[in-house]
Amino acid sequence: MAQGEAKTFYIETFGCQMNVHDSEKVIGTLLSEGYQQVSTVEEAGLILYNTCSIRDKAAQKVFHRLADYKKLQSQGKKFGVLGCVAQQEGHKIFERAPHVSMVCGSASYRNLPEMLVQLEAGNRRVTGLDDRHTDQTFDTEFTARSNQHRGYITIIEGCDKFCSYCVVPFTRGKERSRTSESVLAEARRMVDQGFTDIQLLGQNVNSYRDPSGKKTFAELLAAVGEIAGIKRVRFTTSHPRDFTRDIVDAIDAVPTLCDHVHLPVQSGSTKVLDAMQRLYTREQYLERISWIKAARRDISLTTDLIVGFPGETREDFEETIALLGEVQYDGAFTFKYSPRPNTQALSLPDAISEEEKSLRLAILNERQKQISVENNKRHLNQTVEAMVEGRNHSRKQWYGRTSQNKVLNFTAPDDLSLTIGSYVQVRVTQSYANSLVGELAV
Ligand code: SAH
Ligand code: SF4
Ligand code: F3S
């Protein structure tokens, strides 16, 4: 880069909300180091990919993207790989994509300012690959939040569960929580800046353990919800093993806590759950669901499911289908099992054919769709609160989100201009599997 020229960067983010939020922190760090963010690869001096490795497809996408842009190296552009593929592949990335000059896992982002200096000095192999033993979390005052009304706070990083199919314990390091004081201070700062919707994040958010010993997860949730000015508090993802009854009590007691729990089950068969090392049985999972269903509020339930785990028989799969009917989720994220490096399940024969996995996935999705359609009918004629997110001009509709995290498209009088981030009451007139339609209630 010529002297005096502006330092510019482009960043693309793959993966979960933790990655999206990490990117906000990385962007903030780069801006504070004098970089300017640009929206195209062509304009950028530094190109960063914040990567996901949860399934093979996600990881391969990164290498394809890097290969696509290899030719840009001749223009003096530099490339950095961040996130879960960076941590997993480490120095191997330099061999596979020699035009990359920075590889940095999420546990090393706090070292980014030094790494950028090395990069600018022309070092072609800059790495930040702290292993899973770090105790540090990445909190920064420089977070560049992409939405001015709804924002994330990571309260716990890493994972100690080691489910037999999952890369996260290897890519994100050991579980480490922030103190409740630091979480509450960040939440208060956000509210002062005008945020009304806060989402607490963690790979297993409810495995949170306050290092200062002051608050349980449920108490922290309630405390964030009680900050004056907060309208909505969400939390994701909850692990069934650590899902305690006091979380439901907190949702019942504190109206700002959203009436939605995402509780990934993965499989309805205790045999498969055991092979996955999920640390709960079908019955224990259903017990947690019964607590949620016994709440005074109508709490929306969603989940994650994997089909085709090694050894999953047709009967096991039928148990998963039956579980959907029993729980009546409002929605589910469904995946075909993907063998991942370092994981225990990699040594099991991945004997279920791709065709069979696809078939099971299609059956599962069809069944869940029926349930979602039926479930969402309960909102018909209800008046629900939506946070206004934007306007679809061609459809002449506004769109927003309900406390249960459902997309709500709605009409309002033509001459009325709604403010993004405001809350309105909407009467629901139509319902679908993945969204609701309504009209502004006056
Ligand atoms: N910590 C959360 C899940 C985080 S990963 C939990 O334990 O519930 C997000 C989802 O990706 C998982 O719930 C799982 O359904 C899916 N997933 C993880 N590893 C996978 C793999 N190897 N193949 C297919 N899906 C996977
Ligand atoms: Fe992965 Fe299991 Fe940890 Fe969730 S709990 S992140 S699925 S190892
Ligand atoms: Fe992907 Fe890493 Fe998140 S593997 S799902 S970006 S923790």
Mean of residue pLDDT?
95
Bound molecules: S-adenosyl-L-homocysteine, iron/sulfur cluster, FE3-S4 cluster
Q: Please estimate the helix content.
A: 25-40%
Query: Any idea what the CATH architecture of the largest domain is?
Result: 3-Layer(aba) Sandwich
Proportion of residues in extended strands: 15-25%
Structure characterization notes:
With 442 residues, the protein is α/β, with parallel strands linked by helices. The chain contains 13 helices and 19 strands. The chain has helices at 17-32, 56-68, 83-89, 92-96, 112-120, 168-172, 180-192, 217-225, 245-253, 270-275, 282-293, 314-327, 354-376, and strands at residues 7-13, 35-37, 46-51, 78-82, 100-104, 126-128, 150-154, 156-157, 176-177, 197-201, 232-236, 260-262, 300-307, 331-336, 383-392, 397-402, 407-411, 423-431, 435-440. Strand 16 (397-402) and strand 17 form a beta hairpin. Helix 8 packs parallel to helix 9 and helix 12 (314-327) packs parallel to helix 13. The longest helix has 23 residues, at 354-376. Bound molecules: S-adenosyl-L-homocysteine, iron/sulfur cluster and FE3-S4 cluster. S-adenosyl-L-homocysteine binds at residues 54-55, 165-166, 203-204, 237, 239, 264, 266, 304, 306, 335, 337-338, 340.
